[in-house]
Amino acid sequence: MKRKTGSSFAWGLLLMAACCLWPLQCPAIDNSECFDCHGDTGLTKESTDNILNTEITESLYVDEDRFDRSVHNLNGITCVDCHSDIEELNYDNEVPHKKNLKKVCCASCHEQAGEDFKNSVHMKLRTKGITMTCYACHGYHYVRQMEGASVTERENSICLKCHNPYQFHAWLPSRSSHFANVECVVCHAPDVPRHINLKIYDLVSNTFYDSNRLFNILGVDFDQLMKTVDKDGNGIIDPDEFETLVLVLKQKNIHPVFHAELVADISSIAHHVNRGTAQKTCRKCHLANSPYFKTVEVVFNRDDGTVDSYRVDRGVLETYYVNHFYLLGGTRMKLMDRIGLLILAGGACAVGLHLTARILTIPLRRKNEEESS
Ligand code: HEC
Ligand code: HEC
Ligand code: HEC
Ligand code: HEC
Ligand code: HEC
Ligand code: HEC
Ligand code: HEC
Q1: Of the residues 103, 124, 141, the one at which a domain ends
Q2: β partners of residue 59
Q3: How many structural domains compose the chain?
Q4: Measuring from atom 15 of ligand 3, which residue has the nearest CA?
Q5: I need a surface site. Which of 283, 315, 322, 363 has the fewest CB within 10 A?
Q6: What pTM was computed for the model?
Q7: CA of 144 to the centre of ligand 3 (A)
Q8: Measured in angstroms, how far is the CA atom of residue 39 from the centroid of ligand 6?
Q9: Are residues 171 and 254 in the same domain?
Q10: Which residues are CB-neighbours of 4 under 8 A, at least 6 positions away?
Q11: pLDDT by residue (tens digit) across 125-153?
């Protein structure tokens, strides 16, 4: 490790002493050294590394705040873990490291993702001379943890960068509702494990409650809350226990509306996107006991993109508090079966469907409203 000045040399010694005590925790070069230069918004380089071989100015700025919130930083991955051909910084030179660094290989750490990506239409583009990098989808310095992200956030940050789903899917009724509530890869990588995320929505501020705010108001932490709610301690909140949760929240003046979304697990199988293999069968989803709604979790987002989550019984989807998800619970599934029959009878008469669904569910929604008042 080479250091700039005497005093930082002393620090270096201290650091090395610390390293010997705790060898695994010690980064070879601290991020702050890189930020000394790359934290400067004005740092650029002239480059001719492009298909036209013309000179372009490339920014070399890395936003420290955004990097700090990335999944990599939160998991202790440093600059030189990725830019691994920088082994030391030599301040005798104008540029303290090689000017041309190797391309970072994401799959060197994410082997399984690399394997699974091979089986995808996006990898196969290579036969057409288009190389899609991992970071064409994920970005690199600011990869956020996706677990707590909404369907819209996931799609905006990945698929919608390149595709306009309204160009396709003419056969799918209520397209905007599907795109807002079903993540693209749930259909397009049909073997990816998935689950329903239930999040508390605040109708006043039009935002989801994040963990910090919620637990501040409640004056308990996540584990304490769930211990109170999950009375039988079986690790799953059943519909009765769900009522308790709602009650606890109401006592603190939070009137919870739970928003439900069908998302993929954070799994490398999500890369299995191929032509002609997507889920098209309505009844795979819109059927009582559909495997798509087997796993349901209530999640509270933390600031950094991680989540506190707890399993809940799928029966909860039928309760009044789960806003707008009225088509998916058991009894509601029967309604959907009727709609399914209509589809069979009338072909996919898409225009009428939405209306039909709404009309069919009016009595149900009324009943729910009565029950809750
Ligand atoms: C003293 C300032 C300084 C420090 C410290 C520094 N860099 Fe650089 N870095 C530069 C400059 C200047 C360039 C542009 C080089 C050129 O003109 O080709 C550069 C270029 C780069 C590039 C682009 C290379 C390429 O092939 O295009 C990467 C990546 C990079 N630095 C990473 C890092 C990392 C990681 C660290 C910390 C371990 C670091 N730098 C520390 C000044 C610095
Ligand atoms: C998760 C891996 C990863 C980490 C961590 C990472 N980088 Fe990078 N960095 C990349 C990739 C990928 C590129 C795109 C070019 C390439 O393939 O090398 C890149 C490009 C750069 C560039 C060129 C300009 C640009 O934005 O394209 C600079 C400068 C740079 N990184 C600096 C840093 C610094 C400083 C840190 C630490 C704060 C850092 N990197 C951490 C993966 C990473
Ligand atoms: C030095 C090892 C390393 C490299 C190189 C690396 N990553 Fe990671 N990455 C990690 C670790 C550690 C985690 C957090 C634990 C996990 O999810 O596996 C992570 C997590 C992720 C996640 C999961 C986010 C989520 O939702 O949980 C994605 C996506 C990701 N990295 C993409 C990339 C991309 C794209 C690149 C290349 C630009 C890259 N990684 C390079 C180590 C690395
Ligand atoms: C076509 C877009 C796309 C490309 C290209 C892509 N990914 Fe992903 N990746 C995804 C999606 C979608 C998910 C699932 C996360 C979600 O549901 O939001 C994911 C999940 C991940 C995860 C988290 C799951 C896990 O395996 O831990 C990692 C890590 C990851 N990708 C790494 C990579 C790497 C490495 C490459 C390149 C070999 C790559 N990705 C290429 C779209 C892409
Ligand atoms: C960086 C741009 C990019 C991103 C991001 C991206 N794709 Fe693609 N995708 C392409 C390109 C280019 C093709 C090839 C189109 C062709 O061959 O006509 C393609 C092809 C496809 C195909 C095959 C159908 C076709 O038109 O050939 C599907 C399905 C698909 N993508 C779905 C997705 C999904 C789902 C995501 C998000 C996980 C995603 N894509 C993210 C660029 C992208
Ligand atoms: C309800 C399931 C479902 C959802 C949700 C969905 N798709 Fe599709 N999509 C399909 C089916 C089925 C096809 C027909 C082609 C096929 O079988 O792959 C298709 C076709 C496509 C195609 C053209 C493929 C071709 O072969 O021409 C693209 C691109 C695409 N979808 C992208 C997306 C993106 C991006 C999203 C998210 C915004 C999305 N889809 C959401 C099921 C879905
Ligand atoms: C991958 C699972 C999946 C597939 C496949 C699927 N849907 Fe859906 N559908 C959903 C989800 C989730 C919702 C959102 C329910 C909500 O929030 O009200 C939904 C909503 C709907 C709605 C109500 C929209 C609204 O605005 O209230 C209708 C109607 C519908 N789907 C019909 C269909 C038909 C017809 C097909 C087949 C062509 C189909 N769906 C395929 C999961 C799916």
Answers
A1: 103
A2: 44
A3: 2
A4: 75
A5: 363
A6: 0.88
A7: 9
A8: 40
A9: yes
A10: 91
A11: 988 888 999 999 999 999 999 988 999 99
